[in-house]
Amino acid sequence: MTRVLLSPDKFKGSVTAAEVAAALAAGMTSGDPTWDIVSLPVADGGDGTVDAAVAAGWDRVRVWTTGPTGSPVDTSYARRGEVAVVELASSVGLGLLPSGVPDPLGASTFGLGTVVAHALTAGARSVVIGLGGSASTDGGAGLLRALGARILDAEGHDLPEGGGSLREAAELDLAGVLPAARAATFQLACDVDNPLLGPLGATAVYAPQKGADAEQLLVLEQSMMHWASLVGYDSTASGAGAAGGTAYGAMAVLGATVRSGIDTVLELVDFHTQLQTADLVVTGEGSLDEQSLHGKAPIGVATAAHRCGVPVVTVSGRIVLSRDRLAEYGVVESYALSDLEPDLGTSIRFASTLLRRIGRTIATSTHIFEGVS
Questions:
Q1: pLDDT tens for each residue of 134-186
Q2: Whole domain around residue 119: which residue ranges?
Q3: How far apart are CA 359 and CA 190, in angstroms?
Q4: CA distance 151 to 214
Q5: 183 shares its domain with 56
């Protein structure tokens, strides 16, 4: 019996990772009903991280929080024992901006901190935070405020939310930080090594993607410089600029450590245990391109499988990378929805149907199983 491990990421804007796995599994079963198929969806630390943990058996905990500009958001985190997995994108991410209107100076990470506080109050002693998809550049100030910190101006008043106000910060008061936050360990799942400041920093590289114009970029860089001088932590630390500097605040005050997003998720879902008995791994994402080689889920999955000598098949919406390039990561065959349906809109709309077709093709294409027991 062939045992197949399905570990795709989402096809963004089309189908979730769990839906990709389900469609592929249905197709494979129709092609060869004797296959033993294990679905273990993954993510790269951004949106879908909590869903991946839940699909692997973690408990989902629902909680109300506030979005990047203060609007109510119904979100969730994953919990197993004393460990919680929190996802920035599902609380204060770009996708949660009301009507999609950016607020570069006023958006904050306060809502992320609210979710973290809920997990800590419920008994979590270790918190993993996926940092992808941030809508703000506030240096993690909002996160810290939600955990009990106060950021005051020269007259002792609390500053407004958002990175733009941090130019006026005169005092960081940590006296009210939750005792549970002081005692907990924090791990940040992200794949950027940007510092907080400068031409490669949080503002210069990422704030334009969050709607900041030239004048706002100047304000935010000044704010981050002032914030760094107030906090007193090394602004050149690798990864400090992740998620608009959220990593900086978490590293400085919470003692957070940074780890690759996909490596973190693979550990959370116990991928390596499942891999030990797999004959074939199938992974993928919406677009398999050059960016995939820099911390994205499919290449992380393929690399782990290749190390264990398990062949890998990729399935994606489109493939830009050459098959030879993918072969370096143990990929023996690649399929793209665009090969079946060139029209992008139609491919997105009927992704599940196309995935089922590809699943059946995989199950009936014996040439890809050379070396598979």
A1: 999 999 999 999 999 999 999 999 999 999 999 999 999 999 999 999 999 99
A2: 49-261
A3: 31
A4: 26
A5: yes
